[in-house]
Amino acid sequence: MSAYCDQAPGHEFHGPYHDHEYGFPVDDDDSLFERLILEINQAGLSWLTVLKKRAAFQSAFEGFDIHRVAAYDETQRDRLLSDAGIIRNRLKVDATIHNAQVVQRLQADHGSFKAWLDHHHPLPHADWVKLFKRTFRFTGPEIVNEFLMSTGYLPGAHRDDCPVQARILAAQPPWLTAGNPIADCHS
Q1: pLDDT digits over 106-136, tens only?
Q2: For residue 69, which phi and psi values (nearest 5 degrees)?
Q3: Residue 186 among known ligand-binding residues
Q4: Active-site positions?
Q5: Whether the model pTM is above 0.90
Q6: Per the annotation, does 5 bind a ligand?
Q7: Domains of the chain (ranges plus CATH)?
Q8: How far apart are CA 151 and CA 148, in angstroms?
């Protein structure tokens, strides 16, 4: 991760994400859903491409409102697949709609998407991957890793000497909680 901590600061797109979002805990379900969908859309592409299209994604998916996206029908799917502002990949669009429906079920069963994540935390990376593959579409090891690091469930978003890391530690991300063997080296 050292390369990101060296290259992102001051960059038009990477800088704000690195300095204010990447690795910080996320409490809002729509924001968690957005992160998952952005990571899915990054598959096979650069993160810079996704960040440049982020505003278009937010508009196309109505602020990543889980309930609205879960209700998308074929007309909405066709609208998304013709939107040049986003990544027009049918598998990724279909996964977004399906995953919104999954998140709705998780909310019904656990109270929130965050509560579902908290319920399973801490898990080793391999177990997180198995859980996500059973639960969601289009989630492989790298997507799961980046989603969990970006939302504070796994460590590693920043080097220990990165100035942002001190702010993340102060925000008490889930990976830093007691009982997590990974957190012991940061306590």
Answers
A1: 999 999 999 999 999 999 999 999 999 999 9
A2: -65, -40
A3: no
A4: 17, 39, 47
A5: yes
A6: yes
A7: 2-185 (1.10.340.30)
A8: 5
